[in-house]
Design goal:
Elements: H1 8-15, E1 27-29, E2 35-41, E3 49-54, E4 60-65, E5 77-83, E6 93-99, E7 101-109, E8 112-120, E9 127-136, E10 149-153, H2 158-164, E11 170-175, E12 181-185, E13 190-195, E14 200-203, E15 206-211, E16 219-225, E17 232-233, E18 239-242, E19 254-258, E20 282-283, E21 289-295, E22 307-312, E23 317-326, E24 329-340, E25 343-348, E26 354-358, E27 372-378, H3 394-401, H4 406-419, H5 422-433, H6 439-453, H7 458-464, H8 471-478, H9 491-496, H10 502-515, H11 521-524, H12 549-563, H13 567-573, H14 579-586, H15 592-604, H16 608-621, E28 624-625, E29 647-648, H17 653-681, H18 705-710, H19 720-728, H20 734-743, H21 772-780, E30 793-797, E31 801-810, E32 814-818, E33 824-828, E34 832-837, H22 853-864
Antiparallel strand pairs: 1-24, 2-27, 3-4, 4-5, 5-6, 7-8, 8-9, 9-10, 10-13, 11-12, 12-15, 13-14, 15-16, 17-18, 18-19, 19-20, 21-22, 22-23, 23-24, 25-26, 26-27, 28-29, 30-31, 30-34, 31-32, 32-33
Length: about 850
């Protein structure tokens, strides 16, 4: 779909191609008395708006995407520049700025416009990946001066963009006050993305990437999200996201605080290995997060200011998340703010005008008749022109840098950086040093100075670590750039570890990670591990969306120790009071020296608890994740057992297997269960430890779908339009609706609770995503579009066997398929000869034919109440 990468049922509203229930742009503010909202541009100019960005001076750049999420034909997208000449809240002029396909993110910075978009071959017309590019408009005519300049190429999975479209590809972009561009990567991940310096990166799965505006120094910021769509960045470089669901597979919409180097666990750690991840701050149920912004503008009401604003396309709502400090992280409370039909993105200008884009039912391939832009301002808002920073003196730029507007600070900062002279550096340093100024202003000055001074500013930045207010940010700035990291002293970071502030401690650990000095390993090993570091009990799911401030510092220390490859220090620490942290780090280090060292420690120890922890660590090391080559993807509801998705043996595997078998033999029959459980949990697949799989017999419903659809009740005798009109006037009885759900065959392919076996599209959250009209039309027209991840698939396997249905589970070893009759088949991956997605939905039309209007209304009402 558009700029975003959405998940199945959270995506279903979009896929069903329904006629929008917002035929004209309609908005509702919550509370409406606080804001004035105007229709800025309609579908005649901005159909299918996937993303937008606003220049500080008020020009709105909109990414129109007529390909949508699953479309595959190029030549249907462009960036429009919209202008409101009289500042009355309505567009007066629009200019075609540039032609691009699948625009997914935009940043406007001076004369530069950064765009993330899908690329296509001119010869084959097929997708070739995604690029982050920059256009320039130096003459100010509203059009790009020439062709785009690539900054990062191949930043998503070419194979799956070509086969599926951009539904799980790379998404929104935003710049922080530190001058980095932060990029939201969907769980297609990427293979051999290359920046302008020639640096290459590969990432299995989703997370956040960042790069300098010149296209260099590309690096992974965080990892382990599903479909993070966009980021909100506050003045202190806290990064927030509202992510997307995996259709009843346990990963709901979640609000997260992203801490550099953190692992967030999707898809293989977030259920059974929750002790190893940074958990989300909240599980928000169904929906699909889209655009994001941290609002920090002085003319907005205080209660709507200094907050992350996060769009949810599935819920057609802009949310405010009120965050409260909690050690090195936060807790949050979310609340509804502005209702907008399938909201896609938002941004604010230097005068405080908030612009929002709405997909408005434009369908999975975009629509020329749907989509619009609105403007929202506080009721007491008055227009105040934002200056052209290129024309400002250093003195005037300094005044802007000291503003209480985040837009003003960022644009002043970047203009000072672009001037790159002694006067600019001096004014930034003076701003950072002035203790009478607000902290966000001083932070802006510090990061501006760091960008200008580079390695020449190291000594000054180190001095700022003595300033209690700026210590955290000085540490971040000192370790921010790998290009001269070797010249940065280690002492400020070691001192920071002793600070009373957990935020300073976190910045120190992250900095030590980036400095890459293995000699600090013993200091990192002293990080305390809290009692909450406990693996989930067998058969239970861990707390992966509950704030846990205590786990942040040891988590970051482990990430640093692994990055430092501190094998000797870690093995030595196994015999000390720091063994828990050491073994936590060692479980990620597939190194034969590690294996042999652990076995030696086991043999020398008399501590039975420690010995058991060593066995668990060896079990984890028995296999490792296969090297990612972008030839595969785990799908929309992947196997989340963990700890790996595609596990393979390596050089240390035979040594581990031999040792575990020997110890199991010594343990005898009474101790065997430990090895059986270890084998199952770590998925080692050692035959001697295998436990016979006991599959509980379940009585699947026997439904005669042909019989059902051949009956002709009131619904079957009427047009779809008449049915929709009729049920819109009927409330229906949800209790009767549940019975109808069972009797009409819905239960054969859909589950309602996460405790049930997952089947096809999950209905347990449908009411939080679709309204009654949309649910009704999806029942009446199941092939209008196919729910993401649940296309009908035909598999031909060895033995001349053919299967047709939808995939309910897939691992590296097997595919589990369910056909329309509810029959379940497990097919070994090695037996599959061919696999093809079919164009038509497996769900036949006519399943509601036998119902009366009242009965269909009851079914729809029942489904609309499913909001778990």
């Amino acid at each position: 779909m558009i700029k975003f990468s959405l998940s199945l049922i959270s995506f279903a509203l979009f896929f069903f191609g329904i006629k929008s229930f917002f035929h004209e742009p309609k908005v509702q503010s919550v509370p409406p008395s606080e804001l004035t909202i105007t229709n800025f541009a309609g579908p005649d100019v901005t159909p299918s708006p996937a993303c937008l960005a606003v220049a500080p001076t008020g020009e709105v750049y909109v990414g129109v995407d007529m390909i949508g999420s699953l479309g595959k034909d190029p030549g249907k997208g462009h960036i429009l520049k919209l202008i409101d000449k009289d500042n009355d809240g309505k567009m007066d002029q629009h200019i075609d700025f540039a032609e691009v396909d699948n625009p997914r993110g935009i940043i406007v910075q001076g004369s530069q416009v950064f765009v993330l978009h899908t690329t296509f071959s001119k010869e084959t017309k097929q997708a070739t990946g995604m690029n982050l590019v920059v256009f320039e408009d130096k003459d100010g005519d509203g059009k790009a001066d020439g062709p785009e300049k690539p900054l990062i190429e191949h930043i998503s999975n070419e194979k799956y963009i070509r086969e599926r479209g951009t539904d799980h590809a790379t998404n929104g972009i935003r710049m922080g006050i530190d001058g980095w561009i932060y990029i939201s990567v969907g769980d297609f991940g990427f293979h051999d993305a290359v920046d302008r310096s020639g640096k290459k990166l590969t990432m299995l799965g989703g997370g956040i990437l960042r790069v300098r505006p010149d296209g260099t120094e590309m690096e992974v910021y965080t990892h382990g999200t599903r479909n993070v769509y966009d980021v909100a960045i506050d003045p202190y470089m806290n990064v927030f996201t509202r992510e997307n669901t995996n259709d009843g597979g346990g990963w709901n919409v979640r609000f997260s605080h992203h801490i550099q180097s953190g692992e967030y666990g999707y898809p293989v750690l977030f259920q059974n290995f929750t002790d190893e991840i940074i958990p989300a701050l909240a599980d928000l149920g169904g929906g699909s997060g889209t655009g994001a912004l941290f609002m920090d503008e002085p003319n907005w009401p205080e209660k709507y200011n200094h907050v992350p604003m996060m769009a949810d396309w599935g819920r057609s709502m802009l949310y405010i998340h009120r965050v409260s400090p909690d050690g090195p992280t936060f807790t949050q409370k979310d609340e509804e703010f502005i209702k907008l039909a399938q909201i896609t993105d938002l941004d604010v200008d230097g005068s405080g005008r908030l612009y929002l884009s709405a997909w408005d039912g434009a369908g999975y391939s975009g629509s020329p008749d749907k989509g619009y832009i609105v403007r929202a301002v506080p009721n007491n808002w008055t227009y105040k022109a934002f200056p052209d920073v290129k024309k400002l003196s250093i003195k005037k730029l300094t005044e802007l840098l000291k503003s209480n507007s985040a837009v003003a600070r960022l644009n002043a900062s970047q203009e000072l950086v672009s001037r790159n002279n002694k006067q600019a550096a001096e004014t930034a340093l003076k701003t950072a040093s002035d203790q009478s100024l607000a902290l966000d202003v001083r932070v802006a000055g510090l990061f501006t100075y760091a960008q200008l001074a580079k390695e020449n500013g190291i000594e000054t930045l180190a001095g700022f670590t003595k300033d209690a207010a700026l210590k955290e940010f000085a540490l971040k700035a000192l370790a921010d750039r790998k290009t001269y990291i070797s010249k940065v002293p280690v002492e400020p970071f070691l001192e920071g570890l002793k600070d009373a502030s957990p935020r300073v401690q976190a910045a120190s650990i992250i900095g030590l990670n980036r400095l890459g000095r293995p000699e600090v390993a013993n200091v990192l090993l002293q990080t305390k591990v809290p009692a909450s570091f406990v693996a989930p009990a067998k058969g239970t799911e861990g707390p992966h969306a509950t704030p846990n401030a205590a786990i942040i510092l040891p988590h970051l220390a482990v990430r640093a120790l692994v990055q430092l490859n501190a094998v000797d220090a870690l093995l030595a620490a196994v015999k000390t009071e720091n063994s828990t942290l050491a073994l936590w780090a060692l479980r990620y280090m597939h190194n034969e020296k590690v294996v042999n060292g652990l076995i030696d420690s086991y043999k020398q120890s008399t501590d039975e608890k420690l010995k058991q922890q060593i066995l668990v660590t060896l079990g984890r090391l028995y296999k490792k994740e296969i090297a990612y080559d972008a030839s595969w993807w785990w799908g929309t509801r992947p196997d989340s057992h963990g700890p790996y998705f595609k596990a393979v043996s390596w050089e240390g595997s035979p040594v581990i297997e031999k040792f575990l078998k020997e110890e199991a033999t010594k343990a005898g029959a009474q101790g065997k269960q430990f090895y059986v459980d270890l084998n199952s949990r770590q998925r080692m697949d050692i035959p001697e430890f295998a436990e016979e799989e006991k599959v509980a017999a379940t009585e699947e419903p026997k439904i005669d779908l042909e019989k059902i659809k051949n009956k002709k009740g009131q619904v079957g005798k009427s047009s779809i339009e008449d049915v929709l009109l009729a049920i819109n006037k009927l409330q229906g009885d949800p209790l009767k609706g549940r019975n109808i759900f069972n009797n009409q065959g819905c239960i054969a392919c859909h589950s309602l609770s996460k405790t049930e076996k997952m089947k096809g599209p999950f209905m347990g959250q449908i009411g939080s995503i679709m309204n009654r009209e949309q649910i009704a039309e999806s029942i009446l027209k199941p092939s209008a579009s196919i729910s993401q991840g649940f296309a009908t698939v035909m598999i031909i396997a060895k033995g001349d066997r053919t299967y047709m249905g939808f995939i309910t589970e897939e691992t590296a070893a097997k595919v589990v398929m369910r056909n329309i009759a509810g029959e379940v088949f497990t097919i070994k991956a090695g037996d599959i000869l061919s696999r093809k997605e079919m164009e038509n939905s497996m769900m036949p039309e006519g399943l509601a034919n036998s119902l009366s209007y009242e009965e269909l209304a009851s079914l729809v009402t029942f489904l609309s109440e499913q909001k778990k």
